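Note to self: keep these together.
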Amino acid sequence: MENLTELYCLMDDFCKDFEPKMHEILLNNGSKRRRRSTQLSLA
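Structure:
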């Protein structure tokens, strides 16, 4: 790792790949049923 930007880019790429796969496994497993935000919207 040459700098912090490179580390950030690597972690960002990992999260973009990992998160959809994790949600798919949780939905198929029955552990998680929906992906709604737990916060109130501005509307």
